[in-house]
Amino acid sequence: MKPSKLTPSPTGSILTETAVDPRKYGIMIEVQGERLLADLRALAEFGKEGTGVNRLSFTPEDLAARDWLIERMQAAGLVAKIDGVGNVYGRSPSQSRAVLIGSHTDTVPSGGWLDGAMGVMYGLEIARASIEAGADAAVGVDVISFADEESTFCGTLGSRSFVGEVGETEIATAHNLEGLALTDALARAGYADRPHARLDRDRHVAYLEAHIEQGPRLEAAATRIGMVTSIVGIRRMEVIFRGQSDHAGTTPMAMRKDAGAALIRYAGAVLDGFDAVGGPDSVWNFGHVIFEPGAGNVVPREARILIEYRDTTMAIMDRMEAVIRGAATAAHAAGAVAVEARPMMAIAPADMDPALGRLMDGAAAELKASAMYMPSGAGHDAQHLANHVPTAMMFIPSIGGRSHDTAENTEEADIVLGLRVLAATVTKIGNQVRS
Fold first, then answer.
1. Which residue, 315, 347, 379, sits at the end of a domain?
2. Cis before 293? omega within 30
3. Judgement on whether residues 203 and 262 belong to the same structural domain of the protein
4. 3-state secondary structure of 233
């Protein structure tokens, strides 16, 4: 009986509800867990810091890791290159259509050994096993390591470049915290004059990304696989309060233009507003507060607060932004202190492809792996691919929910199980394309 069609995704997924036995075509991908773990450990030596990794984008450690990855891709039988923004892209040489698997290998300062890196190494192992099998697969496996996902210079630079969502002006003006321009970093690396790799809509039938959860939900639920339903949008606003410096001992309270006190009252109003309009998956953070001049005996003349907020729906994010702006308007109208709200970043939320999610769920069931559907509270390269190609993301547990820290870790058995689930998902996709 022909499988029933799913509701098409916005990207035009070709996938159907799977009822196909992958053994029918004899193209099961037999991955090797120990080989994957060996590659992950080798990659972790670049920028090794205790039990973690410090491998910021375009540092010597990062560049050396990209050169190593090129060698591993080529040894696996992929045609591999580094492009003009540092993306490491390996193409399967035998098929005209392919599943693209990827993530990133750069880290935050003093980060973990699995964040991003695991997803790239999953892609490498699945591609290598597929090529070694020598079977007449309907689709090949391409692998990509996107540049600067962690925003050292320009957040999710590689994936946005790959889908054509970053312009030359943004690249020309980006710099790191030390003031090094992205264009100079690319020139020093020898990447600047290289062409940019691009998503090929005729070739790439799907994009898959695997990742440690970076949170505690899977571990708390004693569940080993998470099928991501959506990835949160992220916005940041800086709110600036400008008052007047005065002597803190001689200036009466009613006569002060106290930027610091205005900020504190404002922050309380924003927290109350977020509680009122936020949804079940909404999160927010006051990540940075500055008082100037910052002395105990001087009334602050200026204060700044950086607010980040996340949710999986645009409507809720819009309501949260309205809270920030409305409270700023009210604080400014009070008259003593001038208040300005400045947008700093806006990344839209993205839904994952439901057909791919069901294929992944089916793969987990066949491997007797407990699984659940869940949103991603962190941003990922996948949310940019999702606007252009059917996209799915898979989580495996993080021990203690830890990530973005050298304490980040995951049980080896969970790492290998995740690899097997993703490989089985690729087989299912291939069988859907073939049928």
1. 347
2. yes
3. no
4. strand
- Tell whether 333 and 387 lie within a shared domain: no
State the distance between the two ends of the chain, measured CA to CA, in whole angstroms.
12
Q: Hey, how many other C-beta atoms are within 10 angstroms of the C-beta on 1? A: 4
pLDDT at 40 over 90: yes
For the chain, how many structural domains are there in total? 2
Residue 256 lies in a domain: yes
Residue position matching structure tokens 């080989």? 35
Q: Which two tokens stand for residue 78?
A: 């992929």
* Confidence category of residue 97, pLDDT binned at 50, 70, 90: very high
Interatomic CA distance for residues 137 and 95, integer angstroms: 8
With 0-12 CB in 10 A as exposed, 13-18 as middle and 19+ as buried, what is 177? exposed
Mean model confidence pLDDT for the chain: 93
The helix, strand and coil proportions of the chain, stated in percent and rounded to the nearest 5, come to 35, 25, 40
Name the pTM for this structure: 0.87
161 and 37 co-located in one domain: yes
DSSP state of 111: B
Model confidence at 345, in pLDDT bands (50, 70, 90)?
confident
Residue 239 shares a structural domain with residue 331: yes
Q: What range defines the domain where residue 320 resides?
A: 233-347
CATH assignment at residue 287: 3.30.70.360
DSSP secondary structure string, 278-307?
A: --TT-EEEEEEEEEES--TTB--SEEEEEE
For residue 173, pLDDT beyond 50: yes
